[in-house]
Write a structure and sequence with these properties.
The complex is a heterotrimer of chains A (482), B (489) and C (502).
Chain A: H1 8-13, H2 15-34, H3 39-60, E1 68-70, E2 75-77, H4 79-100, H5 109-127, H6 131-149, H7 156-187, H8 192-200, H9 206-223, H10 232-239, H11 242-267, H12 272-293, H13 299-320, H14 323-354, H15 365-368, H16 370-384, H17 390-404, H18 408-433, H19 448-466, H20 469-479
Antiparallel strand pairs in A: 1-2
Helix pairs in contact in A: 2-3, 2-5, 3-4, 3-5, 4-5, 4-11, 4-14, 4-19, 4-20, 5-6, 5-11, 6-7, 6-11, 7-9, 7-10, 9-11, 9-12, 10-11, 10-13, 11-13, 11-14, 12-13, 12-18, 13-14, 13-17, 13-18, 14-16, 14-17, 14-19, 14-20, 16-18, 16-19, 17-18, 17-19
Chain B: H1 5-21, H2 29-52, E1 61-69, E2 74-80, H3 84-101, H4 109-127, H5 132-141, H6 143-153, H7 159-187, H8 195-200, H9 205-220, H10 231-238, H11 241-266, H12 268-294, H13 299-320, H14 323-354, H15 370-383, H16 390-405, H17 407-432, H18 448-466, H19 472-486
Antiparallel strand pairs in B: 1-2
Chain C: H1 2-6, H2 8-25, H3 30-54, E1 63-71, E2 76-82, H4 86-103, H5 111-130, H6 134-143, H7 145-155, H8 160-189, H9 194-200, E3 208-209, E4 212-213, H10 214-232, H11 241-248, H12 251-276, H13 278-305, H14 309-333, H15 338-372, H16 388-402, H17 408-420, H18 425-450, H19 467-485, H20 488-501
Antiparallel strand pairs in C: 1-2, 3-4
Helix pairs in contact in C: 2-3, 2-5, 3-4, 3-5, 4-5, 4-12, 4-15, 4-19, 5-6, 5-7, 5-12, 6-8, 7-8, 8-10, 8-11, 10-12, 11-12, 11-14, 12-14, 12-15, 13-14, 13-18, 14-15, 14-17, 14-18, 15-16, 15-17, 15-19, 15-20, 16-18, 16-19, 17-19
The chains are: A mainly alpha (482), B mainly alpha (489), C mainly alpha (502).
Chain lengths: 482, 489, 502
């Protein structure tokens, strides 16, 4: 890594980031030039830009089978980076579409700008191969997200969400940073791939390493909203603008998993207690998430707890600590991305036109807007793990990973949890399909961008749920690239 | 076989269901016509499969295979044998009849017929699966149509409870089956989902004994094995007619079939090890189910519990692991499917007209709807195991198998037969004969479409009862194949 | 024509079913349906006569045999045939059916269903007599229950619901043991074919089955058979369904019930129990004889106590069928001897005779019931002058039932007693006492109906028996007389079969 000279690979490796920066500049410029009158076009611009970046990444920044490390070991360009970047970009693009025609209070240039910056941060998180870069990337991601969460400045809940999110984030960041510093102290390097060799030399006691792993996991656990770092999630999801909540629950969570997977697999591949810890985290996350979800009356809180639980399922894959396990976790993330985005998309439009996020407000939805109800059906069933939707395959893979790793107990806990989860998803569906409301005649207004986003998500769920082999191949390549 | 007949059979309902979803909501007849057409075509295709199946050759036929996920050796792999061909036919006919008797659904017919078609694809897919993953995929595919159809179009008083209970029970069962399935593939080292390869894979004895209960009982929940049976009556009763027909007629067979194909055929030593427990549980099913049916006051609950009782016989046949028992189970699955579909269709017709299912408030309906009454009586006779009808043809060999395996089971289970006779005759008399309740004076006769579908079912039951050779050679060929795997005679 | 002749028994068996199905398509015109049903049920009778006259008395074993694949998976086949025991029963059935149809001309409601059920019933009964396959036997055994159940439940009198349910549950309950035992036999022997089973199962005396000695298992199976058939006969104490069912059934139903259905049970003893369980039958013959004697005595005593005419006739059936059981028991004990042959001949002939007389009696009860709408013996009295022809016919038939020498009943009862006397002297002696009561209740009935002071209520309201009704009863009376005077035309055939079988 002592060749600081310029190399084309360096550009290619950060092509998405470059693209995002350019896009951010364009949005800023357009916002200044056209001011607030054309904010809808800003959304289109952002969406188009994100798509363009994704396209460019897909074509030019597709990694070779041999990973490339650039910028003195700060960033690593491999399949994992690539797949996660695609997840973030798609997630961001869809979130933007959801925002465009709905909440007037948030659809501003600044909003889109923050989304782009956060995506940029995530993209760097996925690529970071160095503790410093990693920390910077995490903060680059987090700060815009704090602001986004609190962006409804006149809404107390939103403000509270922003503050809460920030406080929690800062707190866990600090813990994580402490862990990073210990690592540096033990080894004298910040490069993840060098850390591994040094830690394996046996100089450092396992107890110390486990302590470090716990500290670091706190930081990652916050990002993926794993129990016991989950407290922020329900309040933030409830308070934050719905598209932001969707974005938080998918792309941001995926970013957390990106670093978690890389960090654990690279730094602590053989530290058994750390993996056991992940398994325990997974169990706690699933159980707490699902049990608390049971009593929710507000759909955003319900989805918040559900997304906590979903993180638990993904952690099963991580905890399996096998190739299949990692693959399963990544596949789950991909399927979860489209699934949860669709769910939040529907909440966006219902919340916007009905003015409530209570589950009771969904009564009669299947009569008002059958298509919308069907989309919600698909999304919730996919979350519940029912074929032929993406979630089923995702769950199947993580459970398979647990079984293959001889962690049948974990699979069984996961499975029991998915039964509990199915219950509360079905309760929502029952309200949607069975209960009646007074204004069933009034169709919910949906706009073209929104419809496009939902159709893409539903199609994605079906595609992932039926023709899953290619996506599995992607996930596999990503999982073996760390 | 170049013509992908099984694929067409499975996916025609699915395509129809998707198509229906895109119809405009105000066109209320389009969904019906499309669904009925699809159901008729499916029915005809299943007849074709049945007729073209070469009994002499036996084994799996009409095989199609397309790689799905080569990495794990998952493929779209369909084919039918002597056990599944009759079940396919049964699913075809019940789907057709279920669609036909639902013609008058007025509330959101688009979604109704669409979901019904999805349910059809699910069951057909399971019966034709030669890949474990695919089997499970189709198995689980039924979850949401079942739940939603019960909750939306079900019996208002119990639909929320019944649908949720049913869904969660079945989901619990199926996730345990899933663990078992995953263990079969990954823990054993087989690393393939191909059923044909798994059949030949040499699982160790300890492995088989450990994992058999997961897959067998997991799937058998859907066959309402005691003590996981209580979803069945509640679910059947809460469901709208067509779904009751599909549930009790076909879905319960799906559970039994999956338990057979995955549990017994893949883990024969496990089956031998656990067979005594299955026999005990299934015998409880038979007698207990019948006894509970005897004391019901709700017309539909009688039939709901009778299904629990009859599925016990199927399970007994399985657990005997003998030629006769398995033959009987194969036939019983078909016979019970047809019979119970007929039962529920008549119950539905009665309820639609009388708006009550309280046996005490019904009576004398023979005068008002003679065709339905006759159909119900025929189904009742099948249910009683009356010779000359398909039930006898099926139950007799099951009992013979039980004699071979455990005579006490035969002796106890036969009590179920007389109790069944008791409740069937009572319900027939109270509902269809006796004094006509004045409230029911306005009740009209059933429609032509209803009559057609009942006639189809009745003819099948009588034909099989009088000419068992229409079906037993086929089932026997399937049984021989199973016996080759399971060992024994 | 060859096809007809080669499958004569199948034609006899299934013509009623086919006719029943065609009946469903006919227009709903009462007279058309009636005449059609009469005609349809006459065809099997004619064909039975063809069989009768082509039957070779000298040839051993079954004749007119047919065998076809039915349920090969269980080694069961469609195997039918007749011998000297079954042919008289077939004749009895096919003869009574048209008569019952003729008697049913007075049925007014739902004629089509009624006739349909009757025709199905005929197939069920004939199947039992014709089956040479145990499974097939059971199939027809059970099938007959269904139409009978609905006939009683739908066209019966006031208490029909209770009676019909009791009837079917009793007989089905009885069949359960039979079903289990048949399954056991099938599992052990690997076939259901009767001629094969007569060899395999009857000679199975060594070894163990399911952990029990074979003799124990066979004894249990024996009782399972016996109870099933005893319920049908019915043997005391399994008889309680009978008075209810007979009393509540419509007239033609009672005719068939008493005339044919009861014979099914006795036929089961002859066709299955004796050949399949010779040893057990011998062991338990004493019990059977005792039950038979008790049936004779209690049947008669109960009949005497009745004031309901139909119920009285119903109890008389128990009384008369007791002789059949007694004969069978005696034969079981003395198998292979002259006494056994005489007793069995008597039993079979008694079955035939009782078929005639009981059917006749029930019909005559029906005739008067239709006119007076009561069955209460105390409501009548002194009717002879009003309806002399009916009175004559009633007296004649009652005498046949009573066993007056010169009429059929006497011959068969005498033979049973003659055969049983050396073996079961006490039981036979008691039965003779029973015979005395038989005379008592029949005379009592005749007296209460025909003699004594006239109940003025009926004067002018009681039409004489009509031509149609006479047509029903005439063949029965003729046959009673013929058998009484010249029984050998029937006995020869029975005797051959009896001697050859045992």
């Amino acid at each position: 890594m002592d060749t600081p000279a310029f190399h084309p690979a360096m550009i290619l490796a950060i092509l998405p980031e470059i693209g995002l920066i350019i896009l951010a500049g364009l949005v800023l410029l357009a916002d200044l030039l056209f001011h607030r009158k054309k904010d809808r076009d800003l959304g289109l611009l952002t969406f188009g830009g994100l798509l363009a970046v994704a396209g460019v990444t897909l074509v030019y920044s597709r990694p070779d089978m041999v990973p490339v490390t650039v910028f003195g070991g700060a960033l690593r360009q491999d399949w994992a980076t690539f797949v996660f970047r695609m997840i973030f970009l798609v997630g961001a693009a869809i979130s933007v579409l959801f925002t465009m025609d709905t909440d007037r209070r948030i659809r501003s240039g600044a909003f889109y700008l923050l989304v782009i910056i956060a995506t940029l941060g995530m993209s760097l998180m996925a690529a970071a191969a160095d503790l410093i870069t990693l920390y910077l990337a995490i903060e680059t991601t987090s700060i815009p997200l704090y602001v986004l969460s609190g962006s409804l400045v006149k809404d107390q809940k939103s403000t509270e969400a922003g503050v809460k999110y920030m406080l929690f984030g800062a707190f866990t960041s600090a813990i994580m940073l402490y862990g990073f510093s210990l690592l540096y102290g033990f080894t004298g390097t910040t490069n993840l791939y060098e850390l591994k060799g040094l830690l394996e030399s046996g100089q450092i006691s396992t107890v110390a390493l486990v302590a470090v792993a716990m500290l670091v996991l706190a930081g990652f656990g916050f990002k993926i909203s794993a129990v016991p770092f989950h407290f922020w999630a329900p309040d933030v999801y409830e308070g934050a603008p719905t598209p932001v909540a969707g974005y938080l629950s998918t792309a941001s969570k995926a970013a957390g998993f990106a670093v978690l997977l890389r960090f654990l697999n690279v730094v602590f591949p053989d530290l058994y207690p750390a993996w056991l810890l992940v398994a325990l985290l997974s169990v706690a996350t699933m159980i707490i998430g699902n049990v608390l979800a049971l009593t929710q009356k507000n759909i955003k809180r319900l989805l918040a707890y559900s997304s906590i639980a979903q993180a638990g399922y993904m952690l099963i894959g991580v905890a399996a600590a096998t190739e299949l396990g990692n693959t399963a976790a990544i596949f789950y993330l991909i399927s979860y991305l489209v699934t949860n985005l669709a769910a939040f998309g529907i909440i966006v439009v219902v919340g916007w036109s009905v003015g409530s996020d209570e589950i009771a407000a969904y009564a009669g939805l299947s009569r008002r807007s059958p298509g919308l109800a069907l989309a919600l059906l698909v999304a919730l069933l996919s979350l519940g793990g029912v074929p032929p939707f993406a979630g089923f395959i995702g769950k199947l893979f993580v459970f398979a990973a647990a079984v293959q790793a001889d962690m049948i107990w974990l699979a069984i806990i996961g499975i029991i949890n998915s039964v509990v989860a199915l219950y509360y998803y079905l309760v929502v569906l029952k309200v949607v399909w069975l209960n009646r409301s007074d204004d069933e005649e009034v169709k919910l207004p949906v706009t073209r961008p929104w419809r496009l986003a939902v159709v893409v998500c539903v199609a994605g769920m079906l595609l992932l749920g039926t023709i899953f082999a290619p996506w599995y191949q992607w996930a596999l390549q990503a999982a073996t690239a760390f | 076989m170049n013509f992908p007949i099984l694929t067409l059979t499975i996916f025609i309902p699915l395509v129809a269901g998707l198509l229906i979803l895109f119809y405009p909501a105000e066109k209320k007849t389009w969904p019906r016509i499309t669904a009925l057409a699809a159901a008729v075509i499916t029915f005809l295709l299943t007849i074709l499969v049945y007729a073209r199946y070469d009994v002499a050759a036996g084994g799996y036929q009409f095989i199609e295979q397309i790689p799905w996920m080569p990495f794990w050796d998952i493929s779209y792999h369909v084919g039918v044998d002597g056990i599944s061909t009759p079940l396919l036919l049964m699913a075809g006919v019940v789907l057709f009849c279920g669609t036909a008797v639902s013609w008058n659904v007025e509330d959101r017919p688009r979604e109704f017929f669409s979901f019904l078609m999805f349910l059809g694809t699910s069951v057909l897919g399971v019966f034709a699966s030669l890949d474990l993953f695919q089997l499970f995929f189709f198995f689980e595919l039924a979850i949401f149509p079942k739940y939603l159809m019960i909750v939306i179009w079900g019996y208002p008083k119990t639909r929320e409870y019944g649908s949720m209970k049913l869904t969660l029970y079945l989901f619990v069962g199926s996730v345990f089956a899933l663990v078992g399935v995953l263990a079969l593939v990954f823990l054993s080292g087989a690393n393939t989902f191909d059923l044909l390869k798994l059949e030949q894979f040499d699982f160790t004895t300890a492995f088989q004994q450990t994992w058999f209960p997961f897959v067998f009982f997991g799937f058998a929940v859907l066959a309402a094995i005691f003590p996981a049976h209580s979803w069945a009556p509640d679910g059947h009763v809460a469901a709208p007619t067509a779904v009751s027909m599909m549930l009790a007629g076909v879905e319960m067979k799906v559970g039994a079939f999956a338990a057979l194909r995955v549990g017994i055929m893949l883990l024969p030593e496990g089956a031998h090890f656990w067979a005594p427990l299955v026999l005990v549980l299934a015998t409880i099913n038979v007698v207990y189910g019948a006894l509970i049916a005897l004391v019901q006051t709700d017309f539909k609950y009688v039939i709901g519990f009778s299904s629990v009782s009859h599925m016990g016989l199927v399970m007994i046949g399985f657990a005997t692991l003998s030629k006769e028992g398995l033959l009987g189970s194969g036939l019983q699955m078909f016979s019970h499917g047809i019979m119970t579909a007929l039962f529920f269709s008549v119950v539905g017709m009665v309820y639609d007209r009388a708006h009550t299912r309280d046996i005490a408030r019904l009576g004398g309906l023979f005068q008002k709807m003679p065709a339905a009454a006759v159909a119900f009586i025929v189904a009742g006779l099948v249910s009683m195991g009356m010779p000359g009808f398909s039930g006898f043809i099926a139950e007799f060999p099951i009992f013979m198998g039980a004699w071979k395996a455990a005579p006490i089971v035969a002796i106890i289970a036969v009590l179920g037969v007389i109790i069944t006779a008791g409740y069937i005759l009572l319900v027939v008399r109270r509902v269809f004969f006796g004094e006509l309740n004045p409230d029911l004076a306005h009740v009209g006769d059933v429609s032509l479409l209803d009559k057609v579908s009942m006639a189809v079912l009745v003819v099948m039951m009588i034909a099989l009862g009088v000419f068992p050779s229409l079906m037993y050679p086929m089932v026997q060929s399937g049984v021989n194949y199973i016996l080759a795997l399971v060992g024994g005679a | 024509m060859n096809f007809l002749m080669d499958h004569l028994l199948s034609w006899i068996l299934f013509i009623p079913t086919v006719a029943a199905l065609i009946l469903l398509l006919l227009p709903n015109r009462a007279n058309l349906l009636r005449w059609y049903a009469l005609l349809a049920s006459s065809i099997p009778f004619v064909l039975t006569l063809v069989v009768w006259f082509n039957f070779n008395n000298g040839q051993p074993g079954f004749q007119f045999e047919e065998q076809a694949v039915w349920y090969a998976a269980l080694n069961s086949s469609y195997h039918i045939g007749v011998d000297g025991i079954s042919l008289p029963m077939v004749l009895l059935t096919t003869l009574l059916m048209p008569l019952a149809m003729l008697a049913s001309f007075s049925v007014k409601e739902r004629i089509k269903t009624y006739m349909f059920l009757f025709l199905l019933l005929e197939t069920g009964m004939l199947g039992v007599f014709l089956a040479l396959d145990l499974l097939l036997f059971f199939v027809f055994w059970e099938i007959g229950l269904v139409p009978m159940y609905f006939l009683i439940a739908q066209w019966g009198s006031a208490n029909r619901n209770y009676a019909s349910l009791k009837f079917i549950l009793y007989t089905m309950g009885g069949s359960l043991g039979l079903l289990l035992a048949i399954q056991l036999i099938g599992v052990v022997s690997g076939t259901f074919d009767l001629p094969l089973l007569f060899d395999r199962w009857a000679n199975l005396t060594q070894g163990t089955l399911m952990g029990l000695p074979v003799t124990t298992v066979k004894a249990i199976a024996f009782w399972a058979f016996v109870i099933a058939f005893a319920i049908k006969v019915p043997v005391w104490p399994f008889h309680t369904w009978l008075p209810d069912a007979h009393t509540e059934a419509p007239t033609a139903g009672s005719m068939i019930l008493a005339g044919v259905l009861l014979k099914l049970g006795a036929y089961g003893f002859l066709r299955l129990v004796l050949p399949l369980y010779p040893l057990e039958a011998r062991t338990y013959a004493g019990w059977l004889a005792a039950l038979g004697a008790l049936a004779i005595i209690f049947g008669a005593l109960s009949a005497y106590g009745q004031t309901d005419f139909k119920r009285l006739v119903a109890y008389s059936s128990i009384n008369h069928m007791g002789f059949v059981v007694l004969g069978i028991a005696a034969a079981a004990w003395t198998i292979g001897t002259q006494d056994a042959a005489i007793a069995l001949n008597g039993a079979v002939l008694q079955m035939f005779n009782h078929g005639l007389s009981a059917a006749g009696m029930f019909f005559l009860v029906g005739v008067i019931y239709e006119r007076t709408h009561t069955r209460d013996l105390t409501k009548w009295g002194g009717l002879f002058p009003l309806v002399p022809v009916y009175g004559g016919v009633l007296i004649f038939t009652a005498m046949g039932s009573l066993g007056l020498p010169g009429l059929g009943g006497f011959v068969s009862e005498f033979m049973v007693v003659r055969g049983a006397w050396p073996v079961f002297t006490l039981a036979t002696a008691l039965s003779m006492i029973g015979l005395f009561f038989t005379g008592a209740y029949i005379l009592k009935a005749l007296m209460m109906v025909l003699h004594g002071p006239l109940n003025e209520e009926w004067r002018g309201h009681l039409p004489e028996i009509n031509a149609r009704e006479l047509l029903v009863i005439a063949p029965l009376m003729i046959l009673m007389l013929v058998i009484g005077l010249w029984p050998s035309w029937l006995l020869d055939m029975i005797n051959r079969a009896v001697v050859m079988l045992f």
